[in-house]
Amino acid sequence: MTNPTAGIPTAAVPTSAIPISVTPTASIRTPFDGNLLTDNPELYEARFPDAEGLAARWAEDTLRRHRAGRRVLDLGCGTGRDAARLQAAGRQVVGADLSDAMLAHARRHHPGPAYARADLRRFDLGARAFDAIVCLDSALLYCHTNDELDGLLDSCRRALEPGGLLIAELRNGAYFLGRTELLDAPAENRFAWRGTTYRSRTTLSVDRTAQLLRRSRVWTADDGTPPVEQRSAWRLLLPLELRRFLTAHGFTVLALHDGPGPRTEPRWQEGDAPGDRTDADRLHVVARLTSTH
């Protein structure tokens, strides 16, 4: 996800992305104001394969652990893979995302859930329509300001039944206190899809004033098309700060820990119990709506 509005739960931000047409000889075009991966869902799934359905399995395990009801909103559903797997596990799922390309892909390739377009920062998918909301892969952190985060949590409070759950998986702002491992050097990645090799060079930096983790990613392809630079950012939230926001919106935090989870090392496996630390680079939070006022 490169654009603060891209790939965010259908609940995210208005976007002016210019979609790319991906063909068997897909290439990076320029000028390009969108997000290469989230505007091209098949390419996204090629870059982030998840044959084991790890994120959805972790979410389903958490839902069962806390005895959540069947009606689930997958907020920031992206390509719909997780939403469809939760549906297959017996949930009644609505997947929400801002990206029209993602939603079209989800309806075509991952049928089962209902899919809706919404804005992460403030959405209305029905009052008390859900027993649980799942928000994976740092989607919550596309709320860059306090007002945007208040809007998200306000919307979640309206959408949930009293006693409903909010389950989120996201980057841990506390990890960047005194640590620079992810900031010291660009990260290089490459993958091949339909005969074209794509390479990315990703640089992270911390904007302390805005409390954002900023990302610059340069894409190149071996078909000779010009490089494309894309930028995005995530809000950096400290564990106690996240707890305070949730409490202010009527949620009681049941679990807040750094792993194991679907994107930790080592990764979560069936039967793993939640940890009790908040020191590593991911946070996992489970909160119950205990007040609707």
What labels describe this entry?
single chain; 293 residues; alpha/beta; Rossmann fold; N-terminal domain of TfIIb; 2 domains; 7-stranded mixed sheet; globular; Class I SAM-dependent methyltransferase
The Rg value, from CA coordinates, equals: 18 Å
Shape: globular
With strands numbered from the N-terminus, the spatial order across the biggest sheet is 3-2-1-4-5-11-10
Binned, the helix content reads 10-25%
- CATH domain topology of the largest domain: Rossmann fold
How many strands, what sense, and barrel or not for the largest sheet? 7 strands, mixed
Q: Please, how many helices? A: 6
User: What is the CATH architecture term of the largest domain?
Assistant: 3-Layer(aba) Sandwich
Approximately how much beta-strand content do the residues carry?
25-35%
End-to-end separation: 34 Å
CATH superfamily of the largest domain: Vaccinia Virus protein VP39
Task: Write down the overall mean pLDDT.
Answer: 88
How many beta strands in the DSSP annotation? 11
Structural class: alpha/beta
Low-confidence stretches: 1-33
Look at the structure and give the CATH class of the largest domain.
Answer: Alpha Beta
Tally of distinct domains: 2
N-to-C SSE series? HHEHEHEEHEEEEEHEE
Domain Methyltransferase: 72-164
Biased composition (Basic and acidic residues): 264-277
InterPro entries: Methyltransf_25 (IPR041698), SAM-dependent_MTases_sf (IPR029063)
Pfam family, one: Methyltransf_25
Concise summary:
The chain is α/β, with parallel strands linked by helices and 293 residues long. It has six helices and eleven strands.
